Amino acid sequence: MTKKLDVDAITSDLEGSAFFPQRKNDPVLSGHAPITELASVPVTPVREVPPVRPNERAVVREAPKRIITRNSFETYEDQMDSLREIAYLEKREGKVGSMSAMVREAIDDFLVKKKRTLSK
Fold first, then answer.
1. Looking only at Cα atoms, what is the longest distance across the chain?
2. In this structure, are residues 94 and 88 in contact, taking their beta carbons and an 8 Å threshold?
3. Which whole-number Å values give the CA distances from 14 to 3, 5, 32, 85, in the listed order?
4. What is the rounded distance in angstroms from the CA atom of residue 94 to the CA atom of residue 85?
5. 29 to each of 18, 19, 34, 63, how far by Cα in Å?
6. Which terminus of the chain has a lower count of CB atoms within 10 Å, N or C?
């Protein structure tokens, strides 16, 4: 046994509410589309416009920002102790005191130095 819903009753109950505003001349509710309205709309031809190159200078892009990745490396205890102490002293001076920034700077310096020795 299947239960049939009275769609017309539900539609009339919901029509005009805040969520289902009243629709006038809705082709779905009336059962057919108004063909006369579609036939009377004039069709304008589409004119292709060639692309225009700007005479301005192209925008200079900045170098992309470096992406920080998390890695785990083995270090000596005395190296970590020294980093912690320097970070603490920098924080007391009102600076950032980031051990990660210190390590990144040291790696950059090392890479520059290493590239110089390898290129000789």
1. 90
2. no
3. 20, 14, 21, 71
4. 14
5. 18, 17, 12, 58
6. N
Task: Read off the tokens for 112.
Answer: 């520059």
Tens-digit pLDDT profile for the chain (120 aa)? 677 888 888 877 777 777 776 666 555 555 555 555 555 666 777 777 777 777 777 777 787 889 999 999 999 999 999 999 999 999 999 999 999 999 999 999 999 999 999 997
Which residue is listed with tokens 């912690």?
84
pLDDT at 98: 96
The string of DSSP letters for 20-37 reads S---SS-HHHHSS--HHH
Reading the block at residue 3, the tokens are: 């239960």
* Predicted pLDDT at 108: 96
Q: Could you identify the residue written with the tokens 């007391």?
A: 92
Q: Is the pTM of this model over 0.90?
A: no
Q: Tell me the CB-side half-sphere exposure of residue 83, using CA atoms within 13 A.
A: 15
